[in-house]
Amino acid sequence: MQFSMEIAVIGTGYVGLVSGTCFAEMGHDVTCVDIDEEKVAQLSSGELPIYEPDLEKYFERARSEGRLHFTTDLAEGIDGAKVIFFALPTPPGEDGSADLTYVKQAAGDVADLFASGTLQGPKQRIVVNKSTVPVGTGEEVEEVFAERSLEHGTDVAVVSNPEFLREGSAVEDFMKPDRVVIGTEIEWAAEEMERLYEPFVRQGNPILTVDRRSAEMIKYAANSLLATRISFMNEIANVCERVGANVDKVRLGISKDHRIGAHFLYAGIGFGGGLLPEGREGAGPEGRGGRLRAEGAGGHPRRQRLAAAAPGDRGERALRRRPLRQEDRGVGPVLQAGDRRHTGGALPCNHPRATGRRRRGRRVRSGGDGDHPRDLRGPDRVRGGDVRGARRGRRADHLHRVARVSAAGPGQSEKSSRPADCLRRAEPVRPGPDGGDGL
Ligand SMILES: NC(=O)C1=CN([C@@H]2O[C@H](COP(=O)(O)OP(=O)(O)OC[C@H]3O[C@@H](n4cnc5c(N)ncnc54)[C@H](O)[C@@H]3O)[C@@H](O)[C@H]2O)C=CC1
Ligand SMILES: O=C(O)[C@H]1O[C@H](OP(=O)(O)OP(=O)(O)OC[C@H]2O[C@@H](n3ccc(=O)[nH]c3=O)[C@H](O)[C@@H]2O)[C@H](O)[C@@H](O)[C@@H]1O
């Protein structure tokens, strides 16, 4: 008989919705909890707030078979759940360290319910942190539970399970992860978690069960290294421009060295998104505020220089639209039109030019933050949507042009189009007949 368990996912954003849907696809009974009433109502009525390839298919199947539920009621959501995932925001605070307010708030609410004696479900529960959190957060969450007098017999294991999915290929990344990282030293919790993830790694990729702190650190190390690769290539692109070399050919040449590989080597104007910067800034010796020197998109000389070289006032305009970080993405309710306070001057989410991104769940990252070139792929990627506004805005205002190049070659998982080098060459880089770089 197929193994099935009750799962709760607290926080039904990008990660929570994708994880919850994928667990339901594997036959589990999943309840997704969110404080955003509008989002829960929308999901309950069968409407997805984001577009991700395959998400709709799995979402509809799980809902029609009664395996995927949405609620704002935490008690209802976690009552029967053996495993409770936190997929909550961890936006960077003033000093760049992750803000754990949402995680601790939810942990406190769950702990209160465990103490209340009102829940019917299993006494042995696993609280799993999927959010990107500083090293040591597991202990802090554990303390939240230790502070309460939990109902007699309740046994809680606080586990780390960082998420590595990318927006744009989130479902595939979740269903076929390169690896699953589980951080716990509690044997029974490790066994349950491994059992839960076993169907996702049938093709032989590993489940790495490590101590909790190492699991938390793996996430930061991975993001930092990815950020470092892009930053490095951006510097190489600068040098290429100075010496008259072609960065695309240089990339191809170095990527054929199997020690280097082809992924994450596309130069652009600096990486954006709220997420890789977390990797740079969140991990330190104590997991707080330590900074790795890698290049973000904002204010970097490359960005400034490319802006200066852009025709007319485009460069200046592009610079004004600094890339948004996670705190700019807003948490919970969508920002209102005209409210630019949290968007670094960029357009609010419900501006027409934000539509494409908002449909992908990035509510306020709009009007050209210069990242995620996959947003430029076209309206066909958005169900019932129109991203032409977003495309026009971004093409006009931003300096990098986009080539649909698969870094990994045909049939590989790196499907997103990537920013190629810009300005120097008028010709786009096109995929070759084999789907490769065509160089
Ligand atoms: N988006 C991505 O591609 C990835 C994100 N991550 C990490 O996963 C975490 C979540 O990220 P996203 O899903 O992108 O965030 P998100 O902002 O899309 O979603 C978070 C959701 O949590 C809800 N929420 C806030 N407080 C709550 C509470 N007390 N109870 C229930 N729901 C609550 C919000 O309303 C929102 O719907 C972050 O730590 C992020 O760094 C990790 C890997 C990939
Ligand atoms: O921790 C996170 O939240 C996630 O951050 C990134 O995922 P994501 O931000 O969704 O998107 P990516 O496709 O990785 O792109 C990130 C940024 O890097 C830029 N990029 C990416 C690749 C590249 O070769 N060059 C480049 O400039 C993209 O344009 C974009 O601005 C990581 O790829 C995920 O593994 C991780 O889970």
UniProtKB/TrEMBL annotation:
Keywords: NAD, Oxidoreductase. Residues 280-439 are annotated as: Disordered. It holds the Pfam family UDPG_MGDP_dh_N. Residues 5-195 form the UDP-glucose/GDP-mannose dehydrogenase N-terminal domain. Residues 280-294, 313-330, 366-389, 415-428 have a biased composition (Basic and acidic residues). SUPFAM superfamilies: 6-phosphogluconate dehydrogenase C-terminal domain-like, NAD(P)-binding Rossmann-fold domains. Transmembrane segments: none annotated. This is UDP-glucose 6-dehydrogenase. GO terms for molecular function: NAD binding; UDP-glucose 6-dehydrogenase activity. NAD(+) binds at residues 34, 39, 90, 132, 167.
